[in-house]
Design a protein that fits this description.
By secondary structure, the protein is an alpha+beta fold. The protein contains nine helices and 22 strands. β1 and β2 form a beta hairpin.
Length: 446
């Protein structure tokens, strides 16, 4: 398909006086999806999609268009029409450069048959089955090809594989509905240890949740598991985006070089990790990928940028441009490494639910899942969410599951005083980190 991008850019150049610069992306994705519901195979199929996205600069104005039909002339015409209404921006496309080496395609994932993927699902169903519990499992395998080119000579291409596995169990007892889920994603097929981790995680949390206890209340120590951390981290990751800085809504915009968080708090984005589905040698605008330290030992270091947010902010792209076929690029993270999850290539030592952080907690809460994360204006750092799955901690041990409770606080305030990181660092989606103990979280019954 590389020839199509070259041909497209050549045609744009020949539009004398109409455009001086352009870039394009071609992407093809073949997706295999399998779903088991209530323990039975419900669906299994393969679909494929591909398309070209074009951005042109006409008299300083940017225009965007996309096509899945291969009609290059129509694509160019729509891009110019978009530029007539576009904003003025002084973009400079990257020239040809050496790209870092990072493995993105794995033979086992690429070559796995539909039956082999179904077998993985059946095995999880069998291992999670128990009386009174309904089990759902889904798998998705993606085979992708990406090619990027621009009028400055910049180019990049790579093939990628990605595999996601998720399982959830449901237990209904009277008016109590309990749902517990676990998932993993990576660049290759999950090995035996990874599948064992899914089963162990669900089984451990399910056993601890069978007994319902009264919620504690007050300003308490709360352990957030790697999954439960989303409400605390979302405001921070949003504020570290160059888009939020450009919009003037990031509380961290003027804090570069300042200590804003506890010295135990660090965040790094690393697109060069082996085995991760989000890893890549080049971003969607042709900028070579690089490791970007966002917060180091509590000090704000930098933000992520694509080409446009960078030029408008008078800085350089960090190689975080992400774009769809029909949309303009925007800053997007790859693999986030936080806390003491240095490197993100290994697994934690274990320590059970809570990662060994429960000792010494006389009365508190362990939060594994919250309701409504991401809703509302979270950029200020404030959060307030009902719990979907949480456990009471009494005298250093879990005593049962808490229902009808809510947690609230401000991420910026809480992350100034981290009480401890767990020893259970793991991947949750594209984020690697352990459980986190925070003091003074507001807990209330409902």
């Amino acid at each position: 398909m590389k020839n199509a991008i070259v041909q497209l850019l050549d045609r744009v150049r020949r539009q004398a006086g109409r455009a001086t610069n352009a870039d394009a992306i071609w992407r093809r994705v073949e997706r295999t999806s399998i779903a088991f519901e209530w323990g039975r195979l419900k669906s299994a199929g393969v679909n494929e999609e591909s398309g070209i996205g074009l951005r042109v600069l006409r008299e300083g104005k940017a225009g965007i268009a996309g096509s899945t039909s291969g009609d290059l002339d129509g694509l160019i015409a729509r891009a110019f029409e978009s530029a007539d209404l576009g904003e003025t921006v002084e973009l400079t496309f990257p020239s040809r450069a050496a790209l870092p080496g990072v493995p993105t395609e794995y033979a086992a994932a690429r070559d796995a048959s539909l039956e082999a993927l179904i077998t993985i699902g059946r095995e999880l169903i069998e291992r999670l089955a128990r009386d009174g519990v309904q089990v759902n499992v889904s798998l998705e395998r993606e085979l992708g090809e990406t090619e990027i080119g621009n009028s400055a000579g910049g180019e990049g291409a790579y093939r990628a594989t990605g595999v996601g596995v998720s399982a959830d169990v449901w237990r209904v007892s009277g008016d109590d509905v309990l749902a517990i889920s676990e998932s993993l994603e990576g660049g290759d097929l999950p090995d035996r240890a990874a599948l064992d981790d899914i089963v162990r995680s669900i089984t451990t949390r399910l056993d601890a949740a069978l007994k319902i206890v009264e919620s504690p209340a007050g300003s308490l120590p709360v352990v957030f598991t790697p999954a439960g951390l989303s409400a605390v981290l979302l405001p921070i990751t949003q504020a570290l985006s160059g888009k939020a800085v450009l919009q003037g809504i990031s509380p961290l915009a003027s804090k570069v070089g300042e200590t804003v968080f506890d010295p135990a708090f660090s965040i790094t984005d690393n697109p060069l990790l082996a085995g991760r589905a989000c890893s890549r040698p080049v971003d969607d605008e042709g900028v070579p990928s690089q490791i970007t330290t966002l917060v180091e030992r509590g000090v704000v270091k930098q933000f992520i940028y694509d080409l446009e947010t960078a030029v408008r902010s008078k800085t350089r792209s960090t190689g975080h441009g992400r774009r769809g076929i029909f949309s303009k690029p925007a800053p997007g993270y790859t693999n986030l490494i936080l806390g003491n999850g240095e490197g993100g290539s290994g697994k934690g030592e274990g320590g059970g639910l809570g990662g060994g952080l429960l000792d010494g907690i006389r009365d508190g809460l362990l939060v594994d899942d919250l309701i409504g994360v991401g809703q509302g204006n979270v950029i200020s750092g404030a959060f307030s969410h009902p719990v979907a799955l949480a456990y009471r901690i009494s005298n250093g041990a879990i005593t049962g599951r808490v229902k009808d409770a809510a947690v609230a606080g401000n991420a910026y305030d809480l992350l100034k005083r981290i009480a401890g990181w767990g020893n259970d660092a793991r991947w949750y989606g594209s984020r690697f980190g352990p459980s986190l103990l925070l003091e003074g979280v507001s807990v209330a019954g409902r």
